[in-house]
Amino acid sequence: MKRLKQLSHDSLIYGVGAILAKSVSFLLLPIYTRIFSPEEYGSIEMLILISGFFGAAMMMGLDSAQSMYFFKYKDEGKPKQAQIISSILQWRLAWGSGVVLVATIITPSIYAVIFDSSLKIEHFFIAFVSTFFAQILTQSIEIFRLLYRPWSFILVSVAEIIMAAILILSFVLIFDYGILGFFIGSAISGLIISCISWFFLREYLTFSKVHYNWWPLLLKFGAPLVPAEAALFLMSTLDRWFINFYYGSEALGLFAVGAKFSLIIAATVGVFRKAWWPIAMDSMHSDDGPETFRLISRLYIGLGSALAIFIIMLMPWLLKVFTAPVYHSTWPIASILVWQAILYGFFLIGSAGLWKRERTDINLYLMITAAVAGIFLNWLLVPLYGSYGAAVATVITYLFWNIITMFVSNFLWPIKIPFFLLGFKLFLALSFTMLFTLNAGERYIENNLVHLLGFMVIITLIILSIPSSIQRNILVKFKS
Prior knowledge:
Layout (H helix, E strand, L loop, with lengths): L1 H34 L2 H22 L2 H11 L5 H37 L6 H26 L3 H25 L4 H22 L14 H8 L2 H23 L1 H12 L2 H22 L4 H34 L8 H20 L1 H5 L3 H53 L6 H24 L4 H19 L2 H12 L1
Helix pairs in contact: 1-6, 1-11, 1-12, 2-4, 2-5, 2-9, 2-10, 3-4, 3-5, 3-8, 4-5, 5-6, 5-7, 6-7, 9-10, 9-15, 10-13, 11-12, 11-13, 12-13, 12-16, 12-17, 13-15, 13-16, 16-17
């Protein structure tokens, strides 16, 4: 219960930051959907996706290595932790610069062969530079999280978002840089905020020498995660690639805007992941670890699914309020993709055994298996059902990934996660999602009845999420 209290406290603080960050994003969305056409938005989305792929190559799994060894050498003091952090930063500066150059040389020509696009080499270069600075910034703000300093994490994160928004709008609206201005603003913001963030963490930096002696250990842990990250990237973005290939950048732009609204639930999931990860790492090395993971899995799926259904019922209204008319019809896409965020967040719970036994290499095979399944599902569904098929394929892929990961993880570290209870909750919630999205087109049931059913499902999920011990106490008090 102590860890649950810590998780609740940190989640509340991270929640405040997420609300601030996402409120800025939603205030900008009506502007972006009016200054960028669906085709331009689709081009921006593709540049972000390609940059994300090379971002995983820049990272080399060292974000996870930093979390693992930061706590592993915690008892040896701050100097040892500073060596670990500094060695990772030094690697990223050198390796990341090389990745930017290589990616800029090879990507534009390959992209031009596959897709009919007007993007130029400078678009790719600035997008990759923006990702490079984002990587440097991410490492610094992750340290705030590992130090249990959520307010520092929030302030730096929100400052970067606000500065990026100001610079992007300046370059797009004032200087008329278009798509290029979007990435120039992001790059400059990442550079400035990175310098500020590292200044406040200077006690964890020691650049008196290059700490290359740490690289073999860190890369041994992190490098096996790189193919896994690439597989995760592929699994997460297959829908965009298939839509762009079959229907073009305009259809991709519409899909991307609809997907942005799934970020409402993704923000909440992000809060959970940020608060849960340090606690999960600590729990794995404690006697109450299995109990903690069982409790959190039950709460996460139940409460997360309840929140997802509530957001789904709001989706038609949200799209009308926050986007231009051309994007209003994309609310079913946003509703379906809500579950991608929910399932992605659960992975940090379901994969506990892989981290406990330091078998991150197995994660590669699990993700490759899921990615192959995703390729097949998109190949099957996108040509027939377009963007809707792509969204469904993504959710099924993530569900399959979590199922196979849970079984392998539980074999490595048997913590007796309640599989059947979690499965029933997901079945209930996903069934309602399917009913809600299909009913919008055919009107099988009156809207009022559908919303009433949704609230009944929400109440059921919340009740099923309450631990049995608390349920017994409530029942005893009710009877008395």
